[in-house]
Amino acid sequence: MNFEYAERINRLPPYLFAEMEKIQKEKKAQGVDLISLSIGDPDLPPPDFVVEALVKETSDLKNHNYSFSQGEPIFREAISNWYKNRFNVDVEHDQVIALLGSKEGIANVARAFVNPGDKVLVPDPAYPVYANGSAILCDGIAVPMPLLEDNNFQPNLDVIKPDNVRMMFLNYPNNPTAATIDKNFLRQVIDFAKDNKIIICYDNAYSEITYDNYRAPSILEIPGADEVAIEFNSLSKTFNMTGDRIAFAVGNKHLVTGLTKIKSQIDSGPPVYTQKVAVAALNTYKNCEQPEFLHKNNKILQERRDLLVNTLTKLGYTCKTPKATFYVWVNCKGDSMKFAAKLLDVGVAVTPGVGFGKHGEGYVRITFTQPKERIQEACNRITNAL
């Protein structure tokens, strides 16, 4: 028996990444030694202290009971301390909520504030959950904000029509372009949001994956941000804990309360033991400097980045050396799907830029979440293919 999907499901665009996964599985089934540079999933393991804390906390039977929709008090306190140490921002506990990964929070915050027909400003290219999970699945209207290379992959606030706009998503350091911003741009964003009564949802998941002495800011460092903004962050990238699904949102109390109201109807918070492991991880920050393990990890990633960028540059492809994330955004000089298919033929998987939106066409995203020797082999194959 077939049942019709809800209309909001029918409005979702085709999910290119599912199709790419299918093709990659077929290649592997054919015996192809596939080097995947397409998925933003760190290959480096969690630090030892995270694994040790996980063993300890899962062994405590009290940690297997329900948590709270807003998260354990000890976890929210650790996040408050982390914001003070890392960004010198004072955050009250009722400005913090625990999440089952930042993706979940990003989708659910729209359920609390977006009404049918409300406009939601979403970057283009961007992580698809902004337009799909937040706007379309809440019966809102996703309005693209082009991120163009000649504007450093930042939206042009001067051309945005704010009529009936309820919410805006921003993400820096950026996925997929790896672009970064400074506090001056964030000040402009906050002024724009306050002038037009727009909620700012700021995805800062890559704040700690940085290079060349760049330090990513929090939007909450900007005066007035707590009037209009909620920031999402995660332990996924910083501590290589993508599968543990532990994250948080911080910011305007009313926005956090709205998100909590939604989550109280959906889940009971992340597992208690995962939150306690996260406390141990966050407490490794004693000040604004990167902990030693993160410094080492970022050094490894930087070596991979340089190898990949140098190879692409020698081949005549334009790509800026990213100051953050583990992505290289490459101008592929044409159809991104055809370019990705050409590399798949030599056993290298990359992500076509069109999968991130209309303005991603002409680019591909290449990750460096593989060991250096595999990236070197990928570079050799790319050289032969191109």
- Spatial shape: globular
Helix content, binned percent: 25-40%
Assembly context of the chains: single chain
**Using only CA atoms, what is the Rg?**
21 Å
**Beta-strand share of residues:** 5-15%
Number of strands: 12
The CATH topology of the largest domain is Aspartate Aminotransferase, domain 2
For the largest sheet, list the strands in their spatial order. 2-8-7-6-5-3-4
Counted by DSSP, the helix tally is 14
> What are the secondary-structure elements, in order, as H or E?
HHEHHEHEHEEHEHEHEHHHEHEEEH
CATH evolutionary superfamily of the largest domain: Type I PLP-dependent aspartate aminotransferase-like (Major domain)
Low-confidence spans: none
Largest sheet: 7 strands, mixed
**Cα-to-Cα separation, first versus last residue:** 49 Å
CATH class of the largest domain: Alpha Beta
Kindly give the count of domains: 2
Structural class: alpha/beta
| Proper CATH architecture of the largest domain | 3-Layer(aba) Sandwich
Quote the average pLDDT: 94
